[in-house]
Amino acid sequence: MLHNIAILTGGGDAPGLNAVIRAAVKTAKIQYGAHMLGIPDGYDGLVQHAEPWPLDVSEVAGLLYRGGTILGTSNRGDPFSYPVEKDGKIVKEDKSDDLIECLKELRIDALIVIGGDGSLAIANALFQKGINVVGVPKTIDNDLKATEVTFGFDTAITTATEALDKLHTTAESHHRAMVMEVMGRDAGWIALECGIAGGADVILIPEIPFSWDSIMKKIENRSKRGSKFSIIVVAEGAVPEGGEQVIQASADETHGLVRFGGIGHLVGEQIAKNLKMETRVTVLGHIQRGGKPSTFDRLLSTRFGVEAVHMVVRGEFGQMVALRGGKIIGVPLEEAVGQQKLVDPEGQMIKTAEAIGICVGR
Ligand code: F6P
User: Fold this and answer.
1) How far apart are CA 1 and CA 198, in angstroms?
2) How open is the CA angle 285-290-295, to the nearest 5 degrees?
């Protein structure tokens, strides 16, 4: 009999996190009479023994359509390599036993972790140390192999597609090249799908190192045919052939993640220089991560939240929920983490783009 289930959100946020929390709290209470405790700020909340938040059905009212996460999140606090200050320096220490101690003090029977690759890898390591963990995958990048889709992705591409619609009208009026940089460090799903849906002329993704020549030719040909504007979508991790990814900030001691950004401006500069065309660059940034989840994401989040609690009650620990063939199933965290789902350069989605004349940089 489970009495106390804790839930936390880790890593970068994604629209739909609150909808998962809502569904999990409701299922725990209504179906099983279990108590749900919200852990603030991801794993940090457990390592630092932060006051948990008892979540009852009334607490989650109105959460379905709210972006972000009411629990807060952090992408810095890996408990197995936790940044602490010692003699004025940041050093990494294994704080996983502190976290386990906190779970014991709170009398937690099981922990639901909603997170991306990093947070789920930590969840798996905690499971190996004996903690009853169930994972829920999230990322706007949609780059986890174990699930067909992650929630947050649909909202992100909807936002990006709407932005492209807006750029289209102004690009056409001013006869400009409009470059839009979107998120996607290693996987180009956001760029590819919003680019196709938003009628882009060029789509550049990390999986296909691009040739400057092919971009210039595409834009030039459009001009020759009378289309005096062009729309170029660039994933932040896109890279020119023989070149390197453009980084805004290198990994710092506490964060540990390189911050991408700048490739959009580089592409814009090259188009302006080579084609003598007026060019403007828009970096969509965190707008892609914010706001209300789409209908699709609300549904997927709700289904994930419900099933995660069922899995906890059935004792299916060390697993995460996943969408496969339209059904929500459990897959071992072990298999699920560390496997990225990248765009196949010869796959159907790329072929679809190329069939309608979109240049993918080759
Ligand atoms: O993993 C999701 C993601 O949106 C990446 O595409 C992006 O590079 C990163 O998060 C940005 O993270 P931060 O919020 O730390 O800037």
Assistant:
1) 50
2) 125
Report, as ranges of residue numbers, the positions in the chain whose pLDDT lies below 50: none
Percent pLDDT > 90 in the chain is 91
pTM for the whole structure: 0.95
pLDDT tens track for 305-345: 999 999 999 999 999 999 999 999 999 999 889 899 999 99
Indicate which residue's Cα is closest to atom 16 of ligand 1. 259
Domains within the chain, CATH numbers bracketed? 4-151+293-336 (3.40.50.450), 157-289 (3.40.50.460)
Q: Which of 185, 192, 254 to mutate to test the pocket of ligand 1 (most atoms within 8 A of CB)?
A: 185
pLDDT for res 256: 65
- Cα–Cα dist 53/57, whole Å: 13
For atom 12 of ligand 1, which residue has the closest CA?
Answer: 12
37 Cα distance to chain centroid: 24
Is 218 within 8 Å of 204 (Cβ atoms)?
no
